[in-house]
Amino acid sequence: MAHALSISTAQPSKKTSKIPEVLCVLATLFQALPPVLLLWLSHTAYADPRGLSQGTEDLLTNLLMITSSLTSLSLGCVGIYLILRRSHRSVLSWLFILLGWVGIFAGLVYGQALLGFWVWI
Q1: CB–CB of 24/83 below 8 Å?
Q2: Distance (Å, rounded) from C-alpha 43 to C-alpha 57?
Q3: 41 Cβ partners below 8 Å, 6+ apart?
Q4: For residues 79 and 23, is the Cβ–Cβ distance under 8 A?
Q5: How far apart are CA 91 and CA 107, in angstroms?
Q6: What angle do CA 48, 54, 58 make, to 5 degrees?
Q7: What is the pLDDT along the chain (121 residues), one digit of tens a residue?
Q8: What's this model's pTM, rounded to 2 decimal places?
Q9: What is the sign, positive or negative, of the torsion defined by CA atoms of 43, 49, 54, 59?
Q10: Sign of CA dihedral 108, 106, 30, 55
């Protein structure tokens, strides 16, 4: 019975989730995808034999810009929120917050470009 009442000296395991850091890194890495897709779209639409009609090109451009903007903003904001919600913050946390801001800024740029595209059409 004495062993059941003894105090354990084992350290509790610290299981911290890496999801916030992964989201902030994905927010930054995602920024390579929209320019590549826009480049592909422009090459397809303006090839010598026109690959896409004007209406299809406009629709795909709108969908790409909306999706890019929302995805960048979501990844950046959720990643930063989850990092700031933690009780312990380190220098590395601030680095990931900076990476999340890249996603937020890019999402705002994509949104502004979309608004400019709508005004231009």
Answers
A1: yes
A2: 11
A3: 52, 57, 60, 61, 64
A4: yes
A5: 25
A6: 120
A7: 555 555 545 454 456 678 888 888 998 899 999 999 999 998 988 888 888 888 999 899 999 999 999 999 999 999 888 888 876 777 778 888 888 899 999 999 999 989 988 887 6
A8: 0.75
A9: negative
A10: positive
CA distance 27 to 118: 25
Q: Tell me if 55 sits within 8 A of 62, measured CB to CB.
A: no
* Residue count (the chain): 121
Integer Cα distance of 87 and 120 in angstroms: 47
Tokens representing residue 39 in the block: 């480049």
DSSP H helical segments within 1-121, as ranges? Answer: 2-5, 19-29, 33-45, 54-85, 91-120
Quote the CA–CA distance of 97 and 6 in Å, as a whole number: 43
